[in-house]
């Protein structure tokens, strides 16, 4: 039986329950798992790389488990170039995240950013997240994630495309199946909280309440998880709106005086 090599990363840090559940399942399935995670929660760092200071790699365990004092994309860089010496793994897995990465979340998500970074290196990549951070069944999600990983390994992905996978927050035995979806729109009810320190300094904390507020359009990631399906959204590296180019050309947009 062929033994596949996995580069496993996340954005929630090395103590994340979702990461640990998936890592355990992968090892039980006889995958070779190289785990490289941030040394703290780095949610919301998107696809950022650290250029302003040096980075440190620390071996957490002998069994290919490392932590980095940087972003998820930093973990991909160092995992691929340093720990694996530039030898491509068979697949890069990011997650399982502790909260959702639906709709507009993908622009902020460090989990998705890591999968995008892997794709830029030509590594088949996938990001896994629950539809809600409220009592997710990471053990069950890890079982489903393994099935998707095996599909990717056996059937491949389109060039320069990775998958953003979201599990509905219901009992695993109640999940209706898997759906290929497109990115939805809404994400959170945004909220900025104001704090005043004992020294009267004012601070602001950007956050938001989880809320599947999007209208139920058929075929979106939101609708899929609302209806009890696992959402699988293919994401391209190329963000160009080719229809937008056609529209702007018809409007003679470049006739700028």
UniProtKB/TrEMBL annotation:
Q: Single GO molecular-function term?
A: nucleotide binding
Where is a divalent metal cation annotated to bind?
11-12, 43, 97
The Survival protein SurE-like phosphatase/nucleotidase domain is annotated at 6-189
What are its cofactors?
Mg(2+); a divalent metal cation
Q: Which InterPro entries match?
A: SurE (IPR030048), SurE-like_Pase/nucleotidase (IPR002828), SurE-like_sf (IPR036523)
Q: Report keywords, A-Z.
A: Cytoplasm, Hydrolase, Metal-binding, Nucleotide-binding
UniProt-listed SUPFAM superfamilies: SurE-like
Q: Which reaction does it catalyse?
A: a ribonucleoside 5'-phosphate + H2O = a ribonucleoside + phosphate
Q: How is the cofactor bound?
A: Binds 1 divalent metal cation per subunit.
A Pfam family hit: SurE
Q: What does this protein do?
A: Nucleotidase that shows phosphatase activity on nucleoside 5'-monophosphates.
Q: Which family does it belong to?
A: Belongs to the SurE nucleotidase family.
Question: Which protein, by its recorded name, is this?
Answer: 5'-nucleotidase SurE
Q: Which organism is it from?
A: Persephonella marina (strain DSM 14350 / EX-H1)
User: What's the gene?
Assistant: surE
